Amino acid sequence: MLTLARLRVRTLGWLLLGLMLASMIGLRYQVGTDWYNYIGGYYDPSRTMSLLDALTASDPAFVLLNWVTTHLGVGIWLVNSFAGVVFVTGLIRFVRRLPEPLLAFTAAIPYVGIVVAMNYTRQAVAIGFVLWALPYLYDRRIARYLITIFIAATFHKSAVIFLPLVALASDRNKLGVVLVALFSAVFGYFVLLSEYINGLVNQYVASGYSQASQGAPFRVAMDALPAIVLLLARHRLQMNPVEKRVWIWISLASLVAMVLVFRAPTAVDRVALYFSPIQFVIASYIPRLITTNSRVLIRAVTITVYAGVLYVWLNYAANSYAWFPYQFYPLAG
Questions:
Q1: What is the pTM of this model?
Q2: What is the residue extent of each domain of the chain?
């Protein structure tokens, strides 16, 4: 309920809040539907890999992280803790640029913080780096933005979709920036995607797995609704020009995803995870967009909506059983 008022959280407060969430993500035990998939698909195989094999694998940074962890002789908790720290650090850096950071942080918890960060470990790391990178783009620090996105893509190659956004970074010398964006996108494709593109298409579009994401339309709709709000209210948002352009394009992408999700639910669902920060943005701006004498009421409604999202997921989602009981490493395993 602290977010009912617009509170100023100092650095120590964010540190404690981030440490608590990162610990919940990183020190979980047998939580999430992909728990055993990550152990069987990444952690255990890395024991017998050479360093060269790890560096040349798909998503090499994540494989290397597992390789280091297994060769140090520590458990999967170190991999998950790294993911938790990266995700939470990126999230806090991102929301602190918004007008109501604590409200944005609250909006991030029910789906992205619990469902994504406590299950899709590779993508949680990638999303953390993307959230860290976006303020670089707002400030036109193009080199830092590109480097951070490339790092994100080495954990989960789908993060390359953020490379072309660098074209939005300048009002002057547009041709130069567009060429940089084009080169970065082509480079990212050939370095990170080209060798695996056929397998990805077969897995996420052509195979039976392409229809495996239950509830994908509802999750994509969670991005599409705030996207509509942003597009309708874009002239009233107090953002710098680059930031506004970024979120207009992500809003349009979210609406396209809403159309495509019925054809390839799993593929669209995975990509749309990167659009989910549109929810944090609108949650943070909504008290300024609605004319009312009581912004406390608007904050209360926003919190209630996301509490409802969490309640519905916990009680009605097909896979929520995998989060019960929540087990913590010091107390389990």
A1: 0.89
A2: 9-331
